[in-house]
TrEMBL record:
Protein name in the entry: SDR family oxidoreductase
Pfam families assigned: adh_short
TM ranges: none
Protein family: Belongs to the short-chain dehydrogenases/reductases (SDR) family.
Organism whose genome encodes this protein: Streptomyces bauhiniae
Alphabetical keyword list: Oxidoreductase
Gene Ontology molecular function: any one: oxidoreductase activity
Presence of keyword Translocase: no
């Protein structure tokens, strides 16, 4: 058990299902007081009722004040988990500006807005914990999903900035970067996800396990698929070789369609 979680006030966005629900269940099981957020009010309530938590439905960008009040005035851990994914990189397809705008708002700016609302209290009180659900796409990339890949890079960059800027003031930051996870979002990746992510997909509970192991060690980067570390190193050390390998994967995807 992570001792700091006992009786902590925890918010999990996008927690009506998938990774978010798994995180909410795990925090509750470890003794935390949990706020379950989701755009779908019924899903948020169902998970909250199941684990003895409080549902605060709505847009993840603007729920900090309400969630803080529901937790008695203090948020100790904020899990910026809500996210969207589109298969908007179909070969020869049109540019879908809506998917870019929505992806930027949900996958990046919701994190920025939450941190803006959280930091004053955290800096005054000596710290807090910000958990960003990114993706291996934020470390690497994902074929067939340009808006997802680019905004997840942005989410990772923001999490890095938070950590390097505020860690000496007690703010702990974790970036969760799994590959495929068996959730509804995996289905949204379409045929590219079927090719790349499905073969090694894991369960949401395994992501929660990886987070808690990382929190116990105060690790920034949480890799539920450990092999991602090797891919990330190869990408940094030999970018052209890595891009060539990803291009072969792209061509295999195109040939399969």
């Amino acid at each position: 058990m992570v001792e700091a979680v006992q009786d902590a006030g925890v918010v999990v966005t996008g927690a009506g299902g998938g990774i978010g629900a798994a995180l909410a269940r795990r925090f509750a099981a470890e003794g935390a007081r949990v706020v379950v957020n989701d755009l779908d009010a019924d899903k948020a309530k169902a998970v909250a009722d199941e684990i003895g938590a409080t549902a605060v439905p709505g847009d993840a960008s603007g729920i900090v004040a309400e969630a803080r009040a529901a937790l008695g005035g203090t948020i100790d851990v904020y899990c910026a988990n809500a996210g969207v994914a589109f298969e908007d990189g179909t070969p020869g397809g049109p540019l879908d500006e809506r998917s870019w705008a929505v992806s930027w708002d949900v996958n990046v700016m919701a994190h920025v807005r939450a941190a803006h609302d959280l930091l004053p209290d955290w800096l005054q009180n000596g710290g807090g914990r910000f958990v960003s659900t990114v993706s291996a796409a934020g470390l690497l990339t994902m074929i067939g999903a340009p808006s997802y890949s680019v905004t997840k890079h942005g989410a990772l960059a923001f999490a890095e900035w938070l950590s390097l800027t505020y860690r000496h003031r007690g703010v702990k930051v974790h970036a969760i970067c799994p590959q495929g996870v068996r959730t509804d979002m995996l289905a949204a990746t379409g045929s590219a996800g079927d090719l790349v992510l499905q073969p090694t997909a894991i369960e949401p509970d395994e992501v929660a396990d990886a987070l808690f192991a990382g929190m116990a060690e105060d690790r920034f980067l949480i890799l539920p698929h450990p092999e991602v570390a090797e891919y990330y190193q190869a990408r940094a050390a030999h970018p052209d070789k890595w891009l060539g390998g990803m291009n072969r994967l792209q061509r295999a995807w195109e040939d399969s369609r």
